Amino acid sequence: MEVLKVRNIIEMRQQRAALVQQARDILNKAESENRDLTAEETQEYDRIMADVDRRAAEIEREERLQGIENELTRSSRTVVVDPNAVPNQQRADQKLHETDEYRSAFWQAVRQGQNALDHEQVRMLLDPEVRALVTQTNTAGGYLVPNEFERTLVEKLLPFNVMRGLATVITTSSGTTQIPVESDFGTAQWIGEGAAYTDTDSTFAQVTLSAYKLTTMIKVSEELLNDSAFNIDNYVASAFARRMGTTEEAAFVNGDGTGKPTGVVSGATQGKVGATGQTTSVTVDDIIDLYHSLKRPYRPTATWMLADATAKAIRKLKDSTGQFIWQPGLQAGQPDRLLSRPVAISDNVPAMAASAKSILFGDFSYYWIADRQGTVMQRLSELYAANGQVGFRMFKRTDGKLILPEAVVYYQNSAT
């Protein structure tokens, strides 16, 4: 099965490469005839590139899922449990919300409500050990989601959240997290034999990550909930992941830090400003200047991040030798590249406009995401009862911030 999946990705990349060549042929033909693209050629070019982007997203999703599946497979092979060794007891190294019993009680409460639970199931869901993992007492009926479901939720978040794949993600049990950052490394000096050493200590700053609350609600019909064939956990995970992933991504990229995370755009350092008149454009020289504005130690692990419309404009740029500076990823597991560094597309990066910070370049692992341990889901049995529906509310607490501004630089379009 794994071999078939790899072959499938290779075929997908070969098909994408063929589309890229078709797009290049259109541009090359117009250039060789020393003319602009016709309306028909422009329409065909845009259609092809839209297909290229769609296939790139499909390839990325498949590769991420395969990586997660492989990791889960490896983990499952390293755990050996004898169910007869300690019947009806929790393993010594296993937390309560990781047990099969907790998972069974949780999903029964989701499908049928708390009244359908027996005393032991209620005790598990309300256990102080579990309550301690969340930020507030769930007097309104919310429960900490099972550990396995939380992993599934994170997996489903990835296609909707570029930043989580690039940033450093930690889980914390505290409301705020203090991260020490070495902002000055100190220096070394040449001294004479027997001369005194000069003290040059490193300088540390502290970055604080808070815990902002993100929540959403969905509705499910009573008929579906009562249908044993309906996969409630997969449906809920997908529905919440789409909403939360999209909202998180917007904040991690372009958030203002007020009631939400501070986006990487706000924290980045100015690298290059376009010349007067470049309010909606960028040149090859601008891209090169932005690349070199990032300090050299960060470049080997740097990634470009930009909106799709900006990517479309850059794809048409050629260097002095007539070669496109955009290099599509044609090898399995390889993303598109710009000046030999990978490209990530996020439409939350501002589009090119007057004074817009439209292109980011840097090491995004210096953007830290701190997830507060424990995602909570609550069944709302009465709110939509008149419509024959049951509501579900989920919330989590998280924050994100670029802890070292020099690690990411931006291109800013000119103001006029």
From TrEMBL:
<feature type="domain" description="Phage capsid-like C-terminal">
    <location>
        <begin position="141"/>
        <end position="412"/>
    </location>
</feature>
<dbReference type="InterPro" id="IPR054612">
    <property type="entry name" value="Phage_capsid-like_C"/>
</dbReference>
<dbReference type="Pfam" id="PF05065">
    <property type="entry name" value="Phage_capsid"/>
</dbReference>
<protein>
    <recommendedName>
        <fullName>Phage capsid-like C-terminal domain-containing protein</fullName>
    </recommendedName>
</protein>
<dbReference type="InterPro" id="IPR024455">
    <property type="entry name" value="Phage_capsid"/>
</dbReference>
